[in-house]
Amino acid sequence: HSPKNLGGTRTRSTHKIVALVGMGARATAVQLDEKHAVKVVDLRCPNLNLIDVETTAAGIKAIPIPDDNAVVTCETTNIFLPAPWLKNAILVEDTVCPFELILVSHQASGDFIQNH
What is the pTM of this model? Predict the structure, then answer.
């Protein structure tokens, strides 16, 4: 988390991208490979209408994965900085199950939109 671009120097002009692994006083800084850290990633996500009707992690897991030939629904990079409201929702949930995280994130985004 918390990636930073430290830039380069005159003799070593490549960018140095670092991030933290862990939380608080135990967080450790690591240098990331620049080419992979900012590489564009094309995601093909299921239709949001399919996610809207699911209320369990098992239901999310059962949604079919789009084909490699499906329309790209999100273009992003390997580094993702969540909005504070999303980060808080994920940390409060305290899970590493990706399907539970999808539910938490979906609910948090709905709450954010409704409140703002």
Answer: 0.67
